[in-house]
């Protein structure tokens, strides 16, 4: 009854798969699609996060570069004007205007090549020492400034390297998490495929066992039937006629009747063949007779034509001779004329 109901249902008969299995497969595909969508959303969110981190790092680098540029410009405007340079006095256009005569009492003037003051030696040694101290202090200030600038650049580079390292670590953690999720998804997919394969295998085995049972039942039915056992040549039904489904072969009487019919057909064919041979012989003799008559008629027609042609030739000769004689007589009469 279950097999009949399955055969009556077109979907089950054509598809061969229960709706529960199809529903589970659809549910599995839906879960896989949702997992893929969630994975894509996570990847998109990770990409947006990485993009934001990189944009923040680039913005910090641009801000640092702008601050350095502004600091350089401010320092140049505050400390690197042409009036503040040490060599500006060598090219000052107003130096001659501000120049005054040397005053021995004024400590701002140095010794002159044209004047010699009493305290020249002592003052020059002290000024030389003071100049050396100032030069050493200036050089020390420059060295310290250079060291501070290098330390600041190293600190900025270290900060940039630390942030780049942090971004790389974040990216590495995201990639590791992504790879782990991919591996987990693949493992789940493989497990689901194995489960589906096992279910399909069990269903196939059950179907095969059912088909084998039906085949064995059909084989047993056919082997045990009277039609295979050839118990009857032609089983007679209730109507008194042979049953079509149980008909096996002819009876001896029917087979002998067929042989007799075949013999009568052979005799009829031989007699018909002999009659055809006789008719062909008669037709051939008639054809020969007709050919002989037609040949004689044709010969007579040719003879008569030749005879008519000979009479025509004789008549033409006679007429020609008569015309020739008439022409000769006319010529004689013509030449015989005497005026």
UniProtKB/TrEMBL annotation:
Pfam families: RIB43A (PF05914). It is found in: Cytoplasm, Cytoskeleton, Flagellum axoneme. Its main location: cytoplasm. Belongs to the RIB43A family. PANTHER family: RE41410P, RIB43A-RELATED. InterPro entries: RIB43A. Residues 86-101 have a biased composition (Basic and acidic residues). The keyword Cytoplasm applies. This is RIB43A-like with coiled-coils protein 2. Residues 86-130 are annotated as: Disordered. It comes from the Eukaryota. Residues 187-216, 264-316 form a coiled coil. Microtubule inner protein component of sperm flagellar doublet microtubules.
